[in-house]
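Researcher: If only I could read backbone structure tokens as easily as an amino acid sequence. Walk me, if you will, through where the backbone shape changes along the chain. I have put the entry right below:
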Amino acid sequence: MQIPNLTPQIIHTDSIPHDPDYGGLRILRVQNDPQALKAMQTGAYEFQSPAAGYSNVNGILSRKGFIGKGGQSRVAVTLNISLQTFVDLVKYDPSNPPPQDYNALGMKEMHDRTQSDFKGQKAANKVDFRDYLLEGIRGDRTLFLPTVSGWQSSKVFDKTIFVVLDETNPHGLYGLVYLPKAPIMQADGQTQTAALFSVANSKDAIDAGALDDMIVTLEVELNVDERKAGQSFADRNGRGSKKNKNLVISLDTSSALSELRLQAQSGTVFEDRLATGRNTSTSETATKYIVDLSTMEQMLLNVISQGRIKPEHFKRFHVPYFLPFASDFLQMLRDQFADQWQEHTPASSDPFRRIYVHGWPFALKAIALAYFRSRIDEIGPLAAAIGVPDASRTVDDAFKSEVEKQKATWEQKPVVSVGELRDRLSKIKWERYRKHWIDLTGAKIKDGKVRRMALKSTAGQEMAVGQAQNTAYIINAVADKILSDTWTDLTQTVNA
């Protein structure tokens, strides 16, 4: 009697054909192949073995670019996966790459050339992106995450398999991709990827269940060598134009700083009088808008931190702590200057920016700095606690704890009280043509002489035109003067 052979029949990966339409990728089409489907269902393929060294994920296999005759199309698979799957699959944290794998796969040169600057500002950007992700995890905002574009080395392409479950669209096959367990390097989205790795190890993400519930999109370019990787990086990062900052601010309604601004400006003269930068103006003769959104953002940053933090460092849980100060500051400006910021200029007067220093960004930013310094004993500890890390706590608990520490040891006192600041602002002569402002900011020069302009508000008398340079030097000089012992120089009525 012959002993039956119970050894399972293994179908080797080498037997799966290369598909010329998809760059030679091994493709198994089970939708129209009953035998292949049965073999998949029984686990007969070599690549299905846990010991084969694959990660399998549902995805869409696509031909990218121009696929016509003579075109150089690309082959990529798009995956919508959980954060946990992302870090398990990618393996490659660009801020801390796995040296053995990426050296062996020929990734070292591309890492050195495209990721060598993951220090300084780029490292700070990683932290900012991580904080953005944490805001989404806490429910402070909806996360709008771009697709991470990565590539896998050509050295493992021959081992990669795509099992087609639906080929209705010949340019977007749905199915299972079996990727060899090798790192996936980023052509676009390095900072986001580094931030995702950082978040995956954070207490906030783990406690919130984000490893399973945060979904990210990864596009993996297949069969990429170092030359193609370099070109891909250059193409994705070498084009584009500068963003319109005011437009971005106006659209970023989830921003914590935008939330602070909206709440603080409610009921003040600034409501509905902030320019967005599109079809709006804050020029010398424009009167509809007092300042633009970017200027208001910088004013608020000066109020809450002397301008020392970036907008992205300010979080939703900070808003209740700083809102009383921001509201008080804008109300102070309303009380001091609203009557002079007239939207409709009387026939006998001039546009307010033509007359008053306080109609210009540099002066308002300076007043914001002076306001912070007048309440430094109250705002200072809060500002000092922003962004202080504590791996054992969630970010909001870390902030609260640091605030208490700062308050317990805080020693800086205001140079003048906020009441004294208000009094000084009410007594200062703010006309641009006064000698004290020309001495402080300089005058506009034409043909080697001080430029003068006949003003309606002075019955046609020609007055010196003061400069309105929105520079850090001038802003600080004005703030220092307002708070100085010689501030009364600004109350004189002598014209330049």
